Amino acid sequence: MPAPLIHLIGRIVDGAYRAYRANQTIENGKSAVELVQLVREIEQRREHIKQTLRATIEAMAQEIDTKSSTFAVVDRGGNSTVSRRGQENIEFKEYIERKVPFRPAISQVCTVALQMPIKVPRRIRKKIAGDTVETTIEIALKQFTASLFFEAVDEALEWRSPLKSEPNYNGTSKKALLGEPATRPKRFGSDIQPFWPRPKGLLAPDLVIVEYRHEPFETENVFAAVEIKFPGDWAKKNQLETYVELMTPTVGINPIKTGREKVALLRVPEDCTGFETTGKKSTPSEQARKRK
């Protein structure tokens, strides 16, 4: 990988990670020794992420002029035989089984985000023996971590990646909010947290896969809008239906069907490439053991 890409990825990942962990360091009053260990941890994490993203970026660079639909042909879809709770695998079967281009690359990034999420401190209040005690806990931001990595890939490819992380759309007009260049999603957050806050009235699928990478990510150019769910974050019918409405064209034959066929659900790790399934529904206890 060219040196500029390595430095770019390192800057994006380290920038967010150092800002969050520095805040945690201050709140927890870490010692000098612990600070040294923290620096070592960040460096190890950065090297791991660079190795993970290198293959993804090189593959995307080679495939930049190929339509996403070409890669969807070989995808087997998600595992609708696996359910996290209730009748999820039945209720959302069509979205789970949707063919998603670049599933191996997406799976790779999501798996790293699941295993090594960026963590932030959050202060909470507890009542102990009648007294209110303030303490700090760590919150793992798996979705944010995945979005950050996808954004790093897109930036490394000069905003010509087929994978657009949390792009914003006007909920009324359905128009994409384009940045500069037009293939770059417009952001309203900070350098540390670019995806939030989001102005009222905007919709942002977790991941959008465009058909033609040199063109803006308007809904007409979207091959798939993917809702990503990590453990503990459940699929919601109204959320998926909102994205169906967003992707539904105003003209054409059977526009509602077209809109539905553009929406996919990817549960991490159940629908990731490489996830082992027996072909039958797992019990809650079996799923818990797999996550350990």
From TrEMBL:
Q: Which residues does the annotated region (Disordered) include?
A: 273-292
Highest taxon of the lineage: Bacteria
**Protein name stated in the entry:** VRR-NUC domain-containing protein
- The scientific name of the source species is Pseudomonas helleri
